Amino acid sequence: NTLYLDLEAGRVVIKLRPDLAPKHVERIKELTREGFYDGLTFHRVIEGFMAQGGDPKGDGTGGSGQKLPAEFSNENHVRGTVSMARAASEDSANPNSADSQFFIVFADAPHLDGQYTIWGQVVSGMEYVDGLKKGAPWANGRVANPDHIVKMQVAADAQ
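Above: the chain's sequence. Below: its structure in token form.
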């Protein structure tokens, strides 16, 4: 239960957490195996907070078209936690609006605990996440010319 998230700077290894979010882990693996994430950007990156990606539109409004029911847990958002983003629309208050977008926190973020579905934890390569191009604070972290996911793979499938 491991994902390889390859960035231009290097490989990020994510331990999947099906014990916390079995439906989300299953869907993330499915999208990864389809190549859905390959080439997508980290469109929203806020210094000291988080990096968000997984949107095919690249502006925070896109997804795969399949909403997932929330799988909240008592797990904490600590540095390197990978969690699902929710819809960036009037639907954002809906806990069941997660689709394909996810975020990785740069630092502990207890205010997110119990409100977003945690599905993974970075176990190596966090320095590459730290190095992602940051967005402007006045633009809610929106990144001009953002960094891309080169490739995402389920480790069991990697060659």
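The two ends are 16 Å apart (CA to CA).
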